[in-house]
Amino acid sequence: MHLPKAELHLHIEGTLEPELAFALAGRNGVTLPFADTEELRTAYLFDGLQTFLDLYYALMTVLRTEEDFEDLANAYLTRAAAQGVRHAEIFFDPQAHTARGVPIGTVVEGLGRALDRSEETHGISTQLIMCFLRDQSAGSALETLEAAKPYLHRISAVGLDSAEVGHPPSKFREVYEAAGALGLRKVAHAGEEGPPAYIHEALDVLGVERIDHGLRCMEDPDLVKRLVADRVPLTLCPLSNVRLRAIDILEEHPLRAMMDAGLLCTVNSDDPAYFGGYVGDTFHAVHEALGLDNEHLRTLARNSFEAAFLDHDEERRARYLAEVEAYAFD
Ligand code: HPA
Ligand SMILES: [Zn+2]
């Protein structure tokens, strides 16, 4: 679907398609524990976040050089452009690479090579969001922020991802304070598998401006009231929720109820190489499964630009919003 939109919840490592994974494995002399792309695809049956993460971390061992990260980002941007993405705020997981001996500079500079040319090549403006792995220690997150200091000109925000349950946002209070003091903006995954209390904590303790997922807010009516009143954006990922078994089938996704409740919902792809669709595919899927009409879809696109970190460039935001209003559905 070509409706102009911003993608605000996208893990660049989650865009690693099997074909590129095998190509990079060949280029870098890495042996994958799968014979071919077909055998790899059969591993894509997840029973929750952890089984997905195990494969996600295993596969990214093929990413080693700046060129690899550049190729990965270019492949994503090419697909995103074909699906109407005009602005992308892209997560990356530095600890997943530094733990394997790949320096953070290789990751950021490699991605940067693609992002620097993105507007010209793909017509997509971009930002980078550096995520801390919440199942690693708070000390490791602080070390990661320290290691990122030479590259902060390329990073606009910090985020929090990986295995959620048992790793509440409050564990990362100190590193979020430090990130805020460095002028970085703040988001966090919360309420994907974790309870609504984690969403409260992400807001109250970490001071985040957006909640990534936030699906489970619907269990807490007072929290919903708060998110509505404060217009806190939620970056929902419906196809991810189905594949990771947060909900059984897309037809049961609460997106429509969440929009009706007045929540500032956006729709995103999360890890599109693993979850069966890029963001335009996701818009199409919720249109079909939830009976969302064109005006619902336009609202989702409008919300994506409202929730984007474009405060330093309101002219650009206004231009994108005008594109949304002018879009003619076929
Ligand atoms: O959906 C996700 N949730 C948490 N961590 C992640 N890391 C990549 N994708 C995800
Ligand atoms: Zn995510």
Automatic annotation (TrEMBL):
Q: Which residues form the active site?
A: E192 (proton donor)
A Gene Ontology MF term for this entry?
A: zinc ion binding
What this protein catalyses is: adenine + H2O + H(+) = hypoxanthine + NH4(+)
Q: Which GO terms describe its biological process?
A: adenine catabolic process; hypoxanthine salvage; nucleotide metabolic process
Q: Which residues carry the site feature described as Important for catalytic activity?
A: H213
Q: Which Pfam families match?
A: A_deaminase
Residue intervals of the Adenosine deaminase domain: 4-317
| InterPro entries documented for this protein | A_deaminase_dom (IPR001365), ADE (IPR028892), Ado/ade_deaminase (IPR006330), Metal_Hydrolase (IPR032466)
Cofactor stoichiometry and binding?
Answer: Binds 1 zinc ion per subunit.
Question: What cellular component GO annotations does this protein have?
Answer: cytosol
Q: Where does Zn(2+) bind?
A: H9, H11, H189, D270
Its keywords, alphabetically, are:
Hydrolase, Metal-binding, Nucleotide metabolism, Zinc
Q: What is the enzyme's class at the highest EC level?
A: hydrolase
Q: What is its EC number?
A: 3.5.4.2
The protein's required cofactor(s) are namely:
Zn(2+)
Q: Where does substrate bind?
A: D271
Kindly give the HAMAP family that the UniProt entry links to this protein: Adenine_deaminase
Q: Which family does it belong to?
A: Belongs to the metallo-dependent hydrolases superfamily. Adenosine and AMP deaminases family. Adenine deaminase type 2 subfamily.
Spell out the protein name for this chain.
Adenine deaminase
**Which species is the source of this protein?**
Streptomyces finlayi
